[in-house]
Amino acid sequence: SQLSYTPILGFFPSSLSLSAEDKLTMQIAFFKMQGFSTEEICQQLGITPYSCYNRIKRFKQKLKKFFESD
């Protein structure tokens, strides 16, 4: 089955400009939250597992920093 992220990005206002890197990171994060394996995600997005793990790690760090800045 093919993974799709288009509906996910529709939740964000069109005025929010996301870089291609941010969009890819969001795709990975949402797919992981939906229970897809890293291998499935990498195959569909054409990235290596190393790249996927690094993006997940950076995403977690950004979330942690965001919530700690309250």
Give the key terms:
70 residues
Summarize the structure in words:
- Helices cover 66% and strands 0% of the residues.
- It has 70 residues and is mostly helical.
- Helix 2 (20-33) packs across helix 4.
- The N and C termini lie far apart (40 Å).
- The mean pLDDT is 79.
- What's the helical proportion of residues? 55-70%
> What does the largest sheet look like?
none
Class by alpha and beta content: mainly alpha
Count of helical regions: 4
Radius of gyration: 13 Å
- What is the 3D form? globular
N-to-C CA distance = 40 Å
The number of distinct β-strands equals: 0
Spans of at least 5 consecutive residues with low confidence: none
Order of SSEs = HHHH
Mean pLDDT: 79
Tell me the fraction of residues in β-strands, as a range.
under 5%
Spell out the blueprint of helices and strands:
Layout: H1 6-9, H2 20-33, H3 38-45, H4 49-68
What's a concise summary of this model?
With 70 residues, the chain is mainly α. The protein has helices spanning 6-9, 20-33, 38-45, 49-68.
